């Protein structure tokens, strides 16, 4: 009899409080998953000397290029969604990328 009563109280507690207790945990998990998603980024060659890049934001990022003068050139750093541009100081562009940290 005591076992039956304990089981009934446990079932009622789970039905009432358990569902409510799980709701915040589920929303916390989903917001954590959203924060853990990777940023989307891409680069585009504008000319032999210039490139642009964009990211969806959420972390520090910048566009980088390497030119035939042997130098690396970078756009300004951003943390928000948007497009950045960078150009060679001299020479032609050979590589382009996005740095994220």
Structure notes:
It is a single chain. The protein has 2 domains: 1-37; 41-100. The chain contains 1 helix and 6 strands. It has one helix at 2-36; strands at residues 41-45, 50-55, 61-67, 72-74, 82-87, 93-100. The chain is elongated. It starts with a helix and ends with a strand.
- CA-based gyration radius: 26 Å
Strand content: 25-35%
Count the E strands: 6
- SSE pattern: HEEEEEE
Whole-Å distance between the termini? Answer: 62 Å
Number of helices: 1
User: Which strands sit side by side, in order, in the main sheet?
Assistant: 1-2-5
Low-confidence stretches: 9-33
Helicity level: 25-40%
Secondary structure category: alpha+beta
If you average the pLDDT, what whole number results? 78
Q: What general form does the structure show? A: elongated
Q: Biggest sheet, open or closed, and with what strands and sense? A: 3 strands, antiparallel
| Number of domains as seen in the coordinates | 2
Keywords: Signal
InterPro entries: TAT_signal
Signal peptide: 1-28
């Amino acid at each position: 009899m005591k076992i039956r009563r304990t089981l009934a109280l446990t079932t009622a507690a789970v039905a009432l409080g358990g569902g409510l207790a799980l709701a915040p945990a589920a929303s916390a998990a989903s917001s954590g998953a959203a924060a853990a998603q990777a940023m989307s980024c891409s680069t585009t060659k504008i000319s032999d000397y210039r490139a642009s890049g964009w990211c969806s934001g959420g972390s520090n990022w910048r566009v980088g290029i390497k030119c035939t003068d042997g130098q690396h050139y970078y756009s300004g750093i951003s943390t928000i969604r948007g497009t950045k541009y960078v150009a060679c100081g001299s020479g032609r562009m050979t590589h382009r990328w996005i740095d994220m940290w």
